[in-house]
């Protein structure tokens, strides 16, 4: 029983990413749980403790809902033709793009999209990259995409490693998928340092907006849960 409670409180604590953690952040009873938890750790042998800590502190390295900005993602400025745009609500054109972001489901939420109106031309590409990830941990890349419009072209995801060439996409979605957010997951099993790159490709007309939201790169393989919203 205590183990479950302690684990739960530590999960909650480890979820407070990038916040400096102090006692005042804890609900009243959690300080007690923490004391028990530390005792519990003391009772473990070294190897078991290391394994346990590894499991419960497995970080979500990049978890971006675009509510505050691009997080650690950045635009590629060389080799593509345009940039992803951070936006709220509907895109500028009728019958293409999402109505709202995925995180909040309302007009206050932000997402990224490619605007395919003039002056964009067929085949123009916009690329977005993660920082270099240099450990060799298996990770699950998950994200939500929205591809709606009569001339939606392609969303590619690459795991670029070892050179500046993008290589073969690890995931490709083509054509309109309806006016809805859809979840995608991809396992990444790196053998060397890599960057994840999202690429939106413009189709034949302005009705080709492609949006992404809630990108996560979490530790461990994907749990294979798909969803729609
Ligand atoms: Ca969002
Ligand atoms: Ca660009």
Can you give a write-up of this model?
- It is a single chain.
- The chain has 229 residues and is of the alpha+beta class.
- The protein has two domains: 2-57, no CATH class; 61-219, Jelly Rolls, CATH 2.60.120.
- The chain contains three helices and eleven strands, in the order αααβββββββββββ.
- The protein has helices at 2-14, 30-42, 46-56, and strands spanning 60-64, 74-75, 85-88, 110-114, 125-129, 139-147, 154-161, 171-174, 181-188, 194-201, 210-219.
- Strands 1, 3, 4, 6, 9 and 11 form a six-stranded antiparallel β-sheet that branches.
- Helix 1 (2-14) crosses helix 2 (30-42).
- One calcium ion binds at residues 65-67, 101-103, 109-111, 213.
Keywords summarizing the entry:
229 residues, alpha+beta, Jelly Rolls, 2 domains, six-stranded antiparallel β-sheet, five-stranded antiparallel β-sheet, 11 strands, disordered N terminus, binds calcium ion
Q: How many separate domains?
A: 2
Q: How would the global form be characterised?
A: globular
Number of helices: 3
Q: How would you classify the helix and strand content by structural class? A: alpha+beta
| CA radius of gyration | 21 Å
Which molecules are bound in this entry? calcium ion
In CATH, the architecture of the largest domain is Sandwich
């Amino acid at each position: 029983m205590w183990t479950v409670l302690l684990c739960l409180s530590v999960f909650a604590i480890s979820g407070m990413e990038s916040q400096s953690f102090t006692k005042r952040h804890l609900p009243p009873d959690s300080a007690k749980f923490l004391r028990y938890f530390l005792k519990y750790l003391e009772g473990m042998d070294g190897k078991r403790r290391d394994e346990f800590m590894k499991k419960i502190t497995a970080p979500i390295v990049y978890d971006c809902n675009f509510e505050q900005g691009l997080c650690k993602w950045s635009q590629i400025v060389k080799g593509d033709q345009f940039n992803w745009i951070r936006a709220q609500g509907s895109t500028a054109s009728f019958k293409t793009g999402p109505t709202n972001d995925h995180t909040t489901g309302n007009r206050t939420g932000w997402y990224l999209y490619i605007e395919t109106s003039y002056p964009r031309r067929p085949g123009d590409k916009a690329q977005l990259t993660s920082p270099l990830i240099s450990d060799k941990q298996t990770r699950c890349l998950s994200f939500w995409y929205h591809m709606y419009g009569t001339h939606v072209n392609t969303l590619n995801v690459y795991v670029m490693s070892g050179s500046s060439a993008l290589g073969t996409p690890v995931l490709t979605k083509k054509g309109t998928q309806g006016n809805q957010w859809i979840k995608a997951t991809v396992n990444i099993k790196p053998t060397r340092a890599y960057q994840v790159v999202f690429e939106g490709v413009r189709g034949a007309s302005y009705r080709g907006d492609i949006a992404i939201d809630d990108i996560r790169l979490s530790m461990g393989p994907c749990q294979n849960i798909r969803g729609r919203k």
